[in-house]
Amino acid sequence: MTALVDVSHRPSLRSAVDDALSGALDPVLTEPTTDTGLLASVSVVGESVSVVLQLSESVASAAMAFVLAADVADALYQVADIGEVCVQVSDHPNAARINAGLSSTAFYLEESDDDTERVDEVRAAFDRRAHDAAVRRCLDALIRDGRIPIGQSDHVLLRDLPRDALRSTLMRRRANLGLSLCPNSRVLVDHTGAYLPDPGRRAPLAS
Asked: Which residue in 130, 121, 122, 129 sits closest to 74, CA to CA?
């Protein structure tokens, strides 16, 4: 179970941290880290936040563990007025190496160009999957709340999304991919920005 130390003088920070962590993605299940058991502990003291991710080698490669931990840190840094952020990995054979890289805000793999390229490839794939998951969660929420009918999600624009944690996560994912942040941009696009049809729509039957 995730341990969370309450904030005595800024109780709103706990809620903001929870929202931020829900926007960080489990790369295997493409679900929030808060729902998949990857968070070993979360400690909030004053304005500072410390997170420990429980990542075995069977769950994530060294490169993926680094990218995931960096994504969690990036999500936390979006919280307004947050102080020091410390994200660490435990239970992984390369935990010490990964954590050293995270603490210096640099790639943990610096020995060769091949290592750096591998991290870049993993990060690119992660960003694509994270964007797809953020799109799905935003649109699912609109359908669940009755704001759009099933089969009409390809008409939704960024300006149609409520200004909540789901939207904030999607905007961060779009920014990572270099996609438009214009309020009139469509939500249902792929990682290149190309429009996608609503998966609930049926193609017309051939006559």
From this structure: 130
